[in-house]
From TrEMBL:
Gene Ontology cellular component annotations, sorted alphabetically: cytoplasm
Name of the gene encoding the protein in the UniProt record: tsaE
Record bears the keyword Ribonucleoprotein: no
Entries under Pfam families matching the protein: TsaE
GO molecular function, one term: transferase activity
General function of this protein: Required for the formation of a threonylcarbamoyl group on adenosine at position 37 (t(6)A37) in tRNAs that read codons beginning with adenine. Is involved in the transfer of the threonylcarbamoyl moiety of threonylcarbamoyl-AMP (TC-AMP) to the N6 group of A37, together with TsaD and TsaB. TsaE seems to play an indirect role in the t(6)A biosynthesis pathway, possibly in regulating the core enzymatic function of TsaD.
Biological process according to GO: tRNA threonylcarbamoyladenosine modification
Cross-referenced Gene3D superfamilies: P-loop containing nucleotide triphosphate hydrolases (3.40.50.300)
NCBIfam families membership: T6A_YjeE
SUPFAM superfamilies: P-loop containing nucleoside triphosphate hydrolases
Organism: Microbispora cellulosiformans
UniProt protein name: tRNA threonylcarbamoyladenosine biosynthesis protein TsaE
Amino acid sequence: MTTGASRAAESGAAESRATGSGATESGAAESRATGSGATESGAAESRGDELRTAEFRAATAEETRTLGARLSALLGPGDLVVLSGPLGAGKTTLVQGLAEGLKVRGPITSPTFVIARVHPSLSGGPALVHVDAYRLGGFVEVDDLDLDASLEESVTVVEWGEGLVEGLSEDRLEVHIERGAEDEERLVRLSGVGPRWSAVSLA
């Protein structure tokens, strides 16, 4: 899922307590079960001048997809999403959920050998441009993809894009995925960078 401006963490002395969903509240922000079954954990949202963060836990691959569908509601034309995490962390699984929420034509598979795929909308919304930068050697190869040509009217999601595509826009949503303790458990951290995300609640 590079950093934006300086991060200011929001904390409080509120007592940690169990919610009705079984998740726990910690610090000043609630940790609560989402509609997807994925749960927000720790301080649900940190605010800075140009960066906001939130963390989620998905117990299964299906919950990761559903979290992606939920995140799609935050996205619109011109948005850049940068996905990072180790091999097999579930980046493409999350994109499948994003695609479902955006209602674009599938199937959504890892574009490693194609590098970039455009998935047109089936509902009059923005297209999804799905990029895998794993095999790209640097900025020149990124530039050759001409992602900026479609950036304004599409939602652009770049797997393995950390350190390569930040120059495409001053605004981006960074998504970092890590494996959890269980086989399919994933920890997902969102970081909104730039003015576009300064007033958006990621929780």
